[in-house]
Design brief:
The strands form 2 sheets. The protein has a 7-stranded parallel beta sheet, with helices on both faces. Helix 5 links the parallel strand 2 and strand 3. It contains 12 helices and 11 strands. By secondary structure, the protein is of the alpha/beta class. Helices cover 39% and strands 16% of the residues. Helix 4 packs parallel to helix 5 and helix 8 runs parallel beside helix 12. The protein is globular.
Length: 318
């Protein structure tokens, strides 16, 4: 025990005075450093990383529709015919998707050949993945991602007509909100020689993947112009020498007898439910109807447009 007493005594002779507790040392060590930073302000903390990611999302510019070129950020075009037509027309393509173990035909071989020649990124994906990307659409094992649709102006449609050496033939849609109807009109417009389709910016269908699909690729060949105000656009076309013919069930004449078919012409098609709006009707030179059986209330925009365009093409061919 004596030895132990000596060791304790030797410790006291070292010259250092004992400090009561450790709080004093820690307090002095923290002097001048301020309060402890919040978790989100510490660069190494997960809370800081979450805050930085949220700020980045808030400050990153988003693609918003405005003016020419208005459309969604990207579009997925599905179906072999639609994809082939889009590639033939030289539509810019971001990525080409092909389902694994796809049964090849002439169209898929052309898609692969065109994608390879143009240097488009080509990805092979599973069918479930392609189903998810296309939101369950019937894709036939192929799809392409395209940039936003590049809308034209009214003046562009007039320029295209002038270059064709044929009287202008333009289809305008008034209140047609179903993109499938727009696609059907585009398909008829391409089949019967229309120079373009005009749609208003608001309360109207745009060129989406659904419109692409229904158009069977005609969206790649027939330009679509978007106008801030449809009535003003019709006034501009009237000033350029075009006659305005509206399609409505209560028209004063029929499409078979409507005038101006061989002249510069704008066919205006209204929505299936409401038809032509009042202001648009007032700017038409004539309102033409399509005789139908009394059991049928009305024709949708796609069918009405196809019938009227066929009649115009027939009369121009005489």
């Amino acid at each position: 025990m004596a030895g132990n007493s000596q060791r304790r005594g030797a410790t006291r002779k070292s010259g250092k005075k004992p400090t009561v507790g450790s709080g004093g040392q820690r307090r002095r060590g923290l002097e001048g450093k301020g309060p402890t930073p919040k978790a989100e302000d510490r660069t190494y903390h997960v809370a800081h990383k979450k805050k930085a990611a949220a700020q980045k999302r808030a400050t990153t510019p988003r693609r918003t529709p405005s003016g020419k070129g208005r459309g969604a950020a990207t579009e997925i075009v599905t179906g072999r015919n639609s994809v082939v037509e889009a590639l033939r027309a030289g539509i810019p393509v971001s990525t080409v998707y092909i389902a694994t173990r796809l049964e090849a035909d002439d169209r898929t071989r052309e898609i692969l050949r065109t994608a390879a020649d143009a240097g488009y990124p080509l990805l092979e994906v599973t069918k479930p993945e392609l189903d998810r990307m296309t939101d369950g659409a019937v894709h036939q094992g192929v799809a392409i991602q395209v940039p936003p649709y590049d809308y034209s102006d009214v003046e562009d449609l007039l320029d295209i007509a002038a270059a064709s050496d044929r009287p202008p033939l333009i289809v305008a849609l008034d209140g047609v909100t179903d993109p499938r109807n727009l696609g059907a009109v585009l398909r008829s417009a391409g089949a019967f020689g229309a120079h373009g389709v005009l749609v208003p910016e608001r309360r109207s269908a745009g060129v989406t993947a659904s419109a692409w699909k229904v158009s069977a690729g005609a969206a790649a060949r027939v330009p679509v112009a978007r106008a801030t105000n449809l009535v003003r656009a019709l006034e501009r076309l009237h000033e350029a020498g075009c006659f305005i013919v509206g399609l409505d069930g209560g028209g004063t004449t029929t499409v078979a007898e409507m005038p101006y078919s061989t002249d510069p012409l704008v066919l205006v098609i209204g929505s299936e439910g409401k038809g032509l709006s009042r202001l648009v009707s007032e700017h038409c030179d004539v309102i033409a109807g399509i005789p139908i059986a009394s059991e049928v209330e009305s024709l949708n925009a796609g069918v009405a447009g196809g019938i009227a365009l066929y009649e115009v093409a027939r009369q121009r061919a005489l």
